[in-house]
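RECORD TYPE: inverse folding
INPUT: structure tokens
STRUCTURE:
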């Protein structure tokens, strides 16, 4: 109960702060507010640390993961997506996307059972729509909460104040998988299993983006700024979902981003 009250209080405070900036109007601004890099010096230092860790640890591990047989990697990715749907479904509901929530509940049930814990994406073969992840950062964005300052978190990478708060809500009871693993008191799912799946998820993501990240680094005059821009664009696209054209403002300069 305390966790639920804490989550509700944070959500109310964030929503209230947004409403206070609307001059009495509840309609969201047509254009998002600027996303400022308030802690740029610290962010750049953290970014450099993360890149050093990436070159020393994460990239070599990702390359090793890429050497695994394709069916193993596909099955792992499917299973991770199946687990993440436990976080996506409540966020579908909070965003008012009840149809998507129903579809994802169906996907979860079918893939967990017939698909053997999600290793096989049976739901896709049955005609279910493509799975799209949702999180509390996206939900807060949907509710009109601004991104706040851009931040770079050690190891975890790019984020914003809003997305960091959204991640914090996971450990306050917002992530069913975290609750089951950490507080479930069962022999199959423990906090170690939870952390292991999170690490594997990061390795899986890195392995899928080896070439794209390398190319971005080679072709960027300022790799830090390029990663920052792409992250903010990606988050805004995910918040707007079906909007084909998204406008992002970074420190006063408008960029039009065509969703793919």
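DESIGNED SEQUENCE:
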């Amino acid at each position: 109960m305390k966790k639920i009250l804490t989550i509700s209080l944070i959500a109310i405070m964030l929503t209230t702060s947004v409403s206070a900036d609307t001059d009495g109007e509840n309609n969201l601004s047509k254009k998002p507010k600027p996303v400022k890099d308030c802690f740029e010096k610290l962010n750049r230092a953290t970014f450099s640390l993360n890149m050093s860790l990436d070159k020393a640890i994460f990239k070599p591990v990702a390359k090793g993961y890429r050497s695994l047989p394709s069916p193993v990697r596909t099955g792992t990715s499917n299973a991770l997506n199946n687990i993440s749907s436990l976080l996506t479904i409540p966020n579908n509901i909070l965003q008012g996307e009840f149809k998507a929530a129903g579809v994802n509940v169906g996907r979860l049930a079918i893939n967990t059972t017939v698909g053997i814990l999600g290793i096989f994406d049976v739901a896709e073969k049955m005609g279910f729509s493509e799975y799209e992840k949702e999180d509390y950062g996206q939900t807060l964005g949907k509710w009109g909460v601004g991104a706040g300052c851009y931040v770079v978190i050690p190891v975890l990478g790019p984020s914003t104040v809003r997305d960091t708060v959204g991640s914090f809500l996971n450990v306050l009871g917002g992530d069913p998988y975290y609750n089951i693993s950490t507080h479930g008191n069962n022999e199959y799912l423990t906090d170690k299993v939870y952390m292991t799946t999170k690490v594997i998820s990061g390795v899986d993501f890195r392995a899928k983006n080896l070439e794209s990240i390398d190319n971005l680094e080679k072709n960027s005059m300022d790799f830090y700024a390029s990663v920052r821009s792409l992250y903010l664009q990606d988050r805004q696209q995910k918040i707007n979902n079906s909007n084909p054209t998204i406008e992002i403002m970074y420190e006063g300069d408008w960029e039009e981003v065509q969703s793919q």
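NOTES: Confidence is low (pLDDT under 50) at residues 1-30, 242-260.
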